[in-house]
Each structure stands twice: as structure tokens, then as C-alpha cells.
């Protein structure tokens, strides 16, 4: 059995995230009271990748049922195979229960269409000209695994006019460009974009997180990623829809994501990741 323990580095975590792996990470990997959601989704990406038979990840969607605070096992089911598409399911099993489940779509690599389009990268300063944004470690210990350089003047819980955050990000444990697993992790590395219009902290846990890698991801050469996150919908019952896009420093679009979040008061924050 593969074991991922608290001393593991990000590269080792990616290499070991296969079905049957026992994950024993301490609170230094947490965010909002449990294991970082992007890290968990990344682990599940690795677990299904092991059964993908060389096909290309098109999308992975994770459903967060409860926070992970104790050791858990990665589980991946046998794929449902089509002629060119595969569907795979995985889960993080904690004390005999599915805490987080995921579904992924893989497909045979094809180059059939010349007329394509992707979101255009905003005009922003390079990462080297942007200030470092330090997330309080007592609030999100996982932040020490990342370097965040904020773009513009908007900050979380600053009472701004727009529910949008933008920043350059990289993982600090290695200097490798993002692959599928690293991208999934980075897509969840910013505070919730809705926090930009809030004046004070409020739990905004993720209930569902879907990540769609871009076709240019395989050509990325820099560890830096520009991430733009915006809350497009905030309903009166507290449910929010957040959309994210990521680019390389040279402007190549490498992925999109969508998060379904819900606002909770402190008495309910332990029920959902």
C-alpha cells in the first residue's frame, strides 16, 4: 500500500496518489478546518489517472460531503469504457464512509478542429511586478505551500464593488510547470472570490468543484499561473456559483473551473468542506 504522510512533498504526493493509497496528512495541509479541497481533488485526479489507459483528462468533478481531518484511503473504480471516452469514479474513504467523491471524463487525444477559441488573458503586469499576498496561516495553513502575487488592488474581505479576485500563483515545493494534478490544486488556491465584496470573514465552503484542463496545458513551461476567479451568481439563500480561468505567462489558456459554494454561519461550518 502506498502511504502519503505529513512529511511528503507535493511531487511525492502526486507520484503516490494511486488507488489504495493511505493518506495521512496533518493540519499543515488544511484550509477552512479540513484538508485543502484542491489538494484532495488533485489526489483523486491521480487516483483515476492510474486507470485512464493513456486517455486525456477532459474534466474532473468533486463532491465534498464532509471535511477530511483524519487518515483516509483513495479509491478508484474500474472505468466505464466507450470507443473514445472513459468515465471513472473515485472517492476519499474516511472511517468507512465516502467523504469526497469524484467523477472524471477521459478521451482519446484527437486533433480534428482548426476553429477553436478560449478565454483571452487579461492585460496584467507580470508576476515579478506584483506584490506578494500573504494568507494568514492560522486561517489557511495550506497557503505556505503556495506563493500568491495579487493583481490589482482588490483583496479578500475588503468590501469591494466586484466579487472578483485575480493573482499569479505557483507551488513553492517544486519549480515544475503545472500538469493536470498541479493545475487542479492551483485552481483552488485563492480565497473565494465572493470574499472581495465582504467586509468580514464568513465560511464559504465548496460543495462541488469541477476542473476542465485546457488543450495548452501540456505545453506549459513556467510554474506561474494567472488565475482569475469571479462569483457570477449569489442567490438569496446563500448559494454561490464561482467560475475560474487560468493562463500561463505567455497568455496560453490552460484550464477552467467552476465551484458551487454555500455561505454558512459558524454553527454549520463543520458540516460541509
The outline comes out as globular
Alpha carbon gyration radius: 18 Å
Helix content: under 10%
Q: What is the CATH T-level topology?
A: Porin
- Name the poorly predicted regions: 267-273
The SS-based structural class is mainly beta
**What are the secondary-structure elements, in order, as H or E?**
EHEEEHEEEEEEEHEEEE
**How many domains comprise the coordinates?**
1
**Amino-to-carboxy terminus distance:** 27 Å
In the CATH hierarchy, the architecture is Beta Barrel
User: Number of helical segments?
Assistant: 3
Q: What is the tally of beta strands?
A: 15
Largest sheet: 13 strands, mixed
**Proportion of strand residues:** 35-45%
- CATH classification, class level: Mainly Beta
- Please state the average pLDDT score: 90
Please name the fourth-level CATH homologous superfamily: Acyl-CoA thioesterase, double hotdog domain
Quick summary of this structure?
By secondary structure, this protein is mainly β. Helix content is 10%, strand content 36%. The protein has a single domain (2-109, 123-262), classed as Acyl-CoA thioesterase, double hotdog domain (Porin).
Please characterize this protein's 3D structure.
The structure is a single chain. α2 (37-49) runs antiparallel to α3 (180-186). Strands 1, 2, 5, 6, 7, 8, 9, 10, 11, 12, 13, 14 and 15 form a 13-stranded mixed beta sheet that branches. The longest helix is centred in the N-terminal third of the chain and has 13 residues, at 37-49. The protein has 273 residues and is mostly beta strands. The chain has helices spanning 10-16, 37-49, 180-186, and strands at 3-5, 22-24, 30-31, 34-35, 56-64, 72-76, 80-81, 85-94, 97-107, 146-150, 164-171, 206-213, 225-234, 239-247, 253-262. It has a single domain, classed as Acyl-CoA thioesterase, double hotdog domain (Porin, Beta Barrel), CATH 2.40.160.210. The chain is built from 3 helices and 15 strands.
Amino acid at each position: 500500500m502506498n502511504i502519503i504522510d505529513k512529511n511528503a512533498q507535493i511531487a511525492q504526493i502526486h507520484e503516490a496518489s494511486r488507488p489504495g493509497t493511505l493518506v495521512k496528512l496533518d493540519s499543515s495541509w488544511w484550509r477552512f478546518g479540513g484538508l485543502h479541497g484542491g489538494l484532495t481533488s488533485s489526489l483523486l485526479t491521480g487516483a483515476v489517472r492510474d486507470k485512464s489507459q493513456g486517455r486525456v483528462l477532459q474534466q474532473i468533478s468533486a463532491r465534498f460531503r464532509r471535511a477530511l481531518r483524519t487518515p483516509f484511503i483513495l479509491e478508484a473504480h474500474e472505468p466505464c469504457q466507450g470507443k473514445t471516452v472513459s468515465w471513472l469514479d473515485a472517492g476519499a474513504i474516511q472511517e468507512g464512509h465516502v467523504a469526497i467523491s469524484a467523477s472524471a471524463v477521459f478521451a482519446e487525444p484527437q486533433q480534428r478542429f482548426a476553429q477553436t477559441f478560449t478565454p483571452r488573458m487579461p492585460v496584467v503586469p507580470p508576476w515579478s511586478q506584483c506584490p506578494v499576498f500573504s494568507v494568514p496561516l492560522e486561517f489557511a495553513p495550506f497557503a505556505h505551500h503556495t506563493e500568491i502575487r495579487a493583481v490589482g488592488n482588490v483583496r479578500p474581505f475588503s468590501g469591494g464593488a466586484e466579487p472578483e479576485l485575480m493573482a499569479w500563483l505557483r507551488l513553492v515545493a517544486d519549480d515544475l510547470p503545472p500538469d493536470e494534478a498541479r493545475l487542479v490544486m492551483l485552481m483552488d488556491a485563492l480565497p473565494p472570490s465572493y470574499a472581495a465584496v465582504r467586509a468580514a470573514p464568513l465560511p464559504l465552503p465548496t460543495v462541488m468543484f469541477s476542473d476542465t484542463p485546457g488543450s495548452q496545458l501540456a505545453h506549459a513551461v513556467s510554474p506561474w499561473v494567472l488565475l482569475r476567479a469571479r462569483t457570477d451568481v449569489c442567490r438569496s439563500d446563500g448559494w454561490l456559483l464561482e467560475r475560474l480561468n487560468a493562463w500561463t505567462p505567455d497568455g496560453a489558456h490552460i484550464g477552467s473551473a467552476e465551484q458551487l459554494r454555500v455561505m454558512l454561519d459558524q454553527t454549520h461550518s463543520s458540516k460541509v468542506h
